[in-house]
Amino acid sequence: MTTIVWFRQDLRLGDHPALDAAIQTGADQGHIIPVYIHPGYAPSDQTADATKPLYEGAAARWWRHHSLRSLAERLASCGSRLIIRQGEPLAELQRLIHETKANRVVWNRRMEPAARAEDTRIKAALRAEGINVDSFNGNYLHEPWTIQNKQGKPFKVFTPYWKAVVAAGLDLPTYPEPDNLPTVPRALNSLAIDELELLPAIAWDKDFYNHWQPGEPGAWSRFEDFLPLIDEYAEARNHLIGTGVSKLSAHLHFGEISPRQIVRYLLDTRGSVLEPRGIEHFVRELGWREFGAYLAYHYPQTVDAPLDARFLNFKWRDAPDDLRAWQRGQTGIPVVDAAMRCLWQTGWMHNRARMIVASFLTKNLLIDWRCGAAWFMDTLVDADEPSNTAGWQWTAGTGADAAPYFRIFNPVLQAEKFDPDGTFIRRWVPELARLENKYLFAPWTASETALAQAGIVLGKTYPEPISDLKVSRQRALVHFDQIKQNTTAP
Ligand SMILES: Cc1cc2nc3c(=O)[nH]c(=O)nc-3n(C[C@H](O)[C@H](O)[C@H](O)COP(=O)(O)OP(=O)(O)OC[C@H]3O[C@@H](n4cnc5c(N)ncnc54)[C@H](O)[C@@H]3O)c2cc1C
Questions:
Q1: Ligand 1: distance of its center to the CA of 240 in Å?
Q2: Which of 22, 109, 202, 403 has the maximal Cβ count within 10 Å?
Q3: CA-to-CA distance for 422 and 393, rounded, in angstroms?
């Protein structure tokens, strides 16, 4: 039997159920053809056809380029070859089936609503042509349809959801990594990775190379670097400077390491993932990733609509200048600017920083969370539609298990608490580096002398705040109050 293994968000060889299934059924008699198909969609096509998976943003494309390169090397070291094609996935698969005489196609499932719709359509079309098609869970501990409340309904709140996941079991098997794979016919054509043109035309990505090593080996070395810190995770995860967290999100998003592998490794080396506190908390955060996928599966409309129906007609501000200042890290609120510049330069932002900038955009600036979510999708290396949607809807107060509408993060207090010595702000907003700590978090409160001594002229070397935090907080409370008095509860 010749089997096509279709790689998408699972760019690894270890714990790869689809690849394992191909190996189990007849690797010795036939070929295994590892394939990556790059969808040739332009961003503008997305609105035209909602069944097409989201176009990947620039930072994620950078990651994918290097991750594919790593996967191709790993396959080559097993005697195989990654076949790369570009175009409409069903047509490309049909072409490959014709060229290789394959009779089976396997893949690991994706959870983005548009991707699921595409997979369902492709599965039906190939089966109708007599091809065996099988899909597997390669990216989650438990898939969304397996976890329900006592009434058989989906959860909307994280804590009971996570309890149900833990009850379903975290001691899960993983699939072995192959040492050897059958060869791929020499005559089978493949594009070169460079031909996909995933890297930026203008070299804005220089800094990325200092921060990231995409691919399966990079994922494991990141995980190993994090392991000595895991016992401190529960506290250290809050420091904005980001040294206490794993930075595994992009590796997980591209499937270079699976959550099952992480949990398996912790169980094998530490005996439990429910204690001590650091490990329990870290694994629970993996649970938030699962919960994002769970919500996207059960409430697919929420990728671009509020889960809480009362927000459907919410009057967000149309304020393109404010949005641009936020995107560029020029709001005049140091912690917001530090976080947004960190995002631009490294493609990553700390979770608390994500909440701070999202709260500032949706509450202080009253700008639609979808504008922020779209910017994140374009600039994050870990841009992940389910996690991003859940994060934005949570912060905006429009989603499941959302932050209460009156919780408006005060960026000054947040910075004082989670960046007390100002390292994070000074790192990313160097024009404030010489300002004393007592003014660093709110430079507009500094005296003329203090500003002059630090070489700062507000409005010239660093912006005046684009929003008065007190006034805009009050405005948000009034707006959100009206919503809460509306009729339909979520
Ligand atoms: C507004 C907003 C947007 C977000 N957008 C994304 C996104 O596009 N992609 C993405 O992967 N995460 C997103 N998150 C979640 C979270 O911020 C990142 O997963 C986390 O900061 C990644 O850093 P880390 O790998 O060091 O996390 P760690 O703290 O080391 O956590 C380990 C892993 O758990 C998962 N995780 C942790 N926290 C969350 C969370 N709150 N929600 C979902 N998964 C979580 C991630 O896979 C992460 O790699 C968003 C959060 C917010 C508030």
A1: 14
A2: 22
A3: 29
> What is the structure's pLDDT at 45?
53
Which whole-number Å values give the CA distances from 175 to 17, 19, 25, 154, in the listed order? 6, 9, 15, 29
Contact 116, 144 (CB under 8 A): no
* Residue found under tokens 């570009």: 86
Q: Cβ atoms within 10 A of the Cβ of 157, count?
A: 12
Burial 361-397 (b: 16+ CB within 10 A, else e): bbbbbbbbbbbbbebbbbbbbbbbbbbbbbbbbbbbb
Q: What phi and psi, each to the nearest 5 degrees, are found at residue 458? A: -65, 135
Query: Ligand 1 — pocket residues by CB below 6 A?
Result: 237, 245-249, 252-253, 285-286, 288-289, 292, 350-351, 354-355, 358, 376, 380, 382-384, 387-388, 391-392, 395
Residue-level pLDDT at 74: 98
Q: Do residues 241 and 352 lie in contact, with contact meaning Cβ atoms separated by under 8 Å?
A: no
SS3 221: helix
**What is the distance between the alpha carbons of residues 35 and 96, in angstroms, rounded to a whole number?**
9
- Please name the residue that has the structure tokens 């899909």: 135
3-state SS, residue 37: strand
Lay out the sheet containing 3-7: strands in order across: 83-86, 32-38, 3-7, 104-108, 132-136
Q: How far is CA 417 from the centre of its chain?
A: 26
Q: d(Cα 337, Cα 330) in Å, to the nearest integer?
A: 6
Domains of the chain: 3-136 (3.40.50.620), 140-174+214-298 (1.25.40.80), 309-485 (1.10.579.10)
Please report, to the nearest 10 degrees, the dihedral formed by the alpha carbons of residues 255, 2, 39, 13 taken in order.
Answer: 20
Binding-site residue numbers for FAD are 233, 282, 382-384
Separation of alpha carbons 147 and 55, rounded Å: 29
CA of 83 to the centre of ligand 1 (A): 31
Q: What is the pLDDT of residues 58-86, one digit of tens each?
A: 999 999 999 999 999 999 999 999 999 99
Bridging pattern class, strands 104-108 and 32-38: unpaired
**What is the tens place of the pLDDT at every residue in 299-310?**
999 888 888 888
What's the rounded Cα separation, in Å, for the pair 92 and 480? 48
The dihedral over CA atoms of 249, 250, 255, 258, expressed in degrees to the nearest 10, equals -20
Q: Which residues of the chain have pLDDT under 50?
A: 43-44, 47-48, 50-51, 489-490
Closest to 165 in 3D by CA, of 283, 331, 303: 283
